[in-house]
């Protein structure tokens, strides 16, 4: 599951427990509920930081949950349902009225990596954890919004090729060199502390959240089109 803590202007969303934080309907609903609470309490200077306990940030969709349906068709239906209900969670993050930071304190794979990439900034530990897209290895194509996230958030064709066409397991230093993450730190605690420092710096700007969200959305027109997010014009209250 997940917990939500507020420290001043910073919201700390933590995927809890020592498991793999696999994204099943229950966890997806829990994260979306936490994001709704964050949005309802947002003020100028608010920042969201998402991290995970243990050695995983998130290991993607819960394939064992899908397989537990008891039939091949049932497993496919459960997997497709997870793909469909994860999409609005991505939309929640892309439209959230504040800066967002993912602190990758462990492995981030498949949909777990998509969760991290849906944030504005990423810090990552170097001693443990990799970024990994497993779809090629398990024989599954990517949902349209996954592809749009990659094209929107990772500018390097060679980086996209490494993750998607080689299924490379990318460690922090390499990910930083590819431009996928923003900073590298020696362990999980330092990774989270770096995210908090960044969050505190961003919080000082006291930006108008709605304006921040609209400018973010304008950067990713393809992704926002697939997510069904529409632009809204915001003008200064005083001219």
TrEMBL record:
Record EC number: 5.3.3.8
Q: Which UniProt keywords apply?
A: Isomerase, Lipid metabolism
- Residue ranges of the TM segments: none
Under what name is this protein listed?
Answer: Delta(3)-Delta(2)-enoyl-CoA isomerase
Q: Name one Pfam family in it.
A: ECH_1
Q: Which residues form a coiled coil?
A: none
Q: What GO terms describe the biological role, i.e. biological process, of this protein?
A: fatty acid beta-oxidation
What pathway, per the record?
Lipid metabolism; fatty acid beta-oxidation
**Cellular component aspect of the GO annotation:** peroxisome
Q: Which family does it belong to?
A: Belongs to the enoyl-CoA hydratase/isomerase family.
GO terms assigned for molecular function: delta(3)-delta(2)-enoyl-CoA isomerase activity
What does the record give as the reaction this protein catalyses? a (3Z)-enoyl-CoA = a 4-saturated (2E)-enoyl-CoA; a (3E)-enoyl-CoA = a 4-saturated (2E)-enoyl-CoA
Respond yes or no to whether keyword Heme is given for this record: no
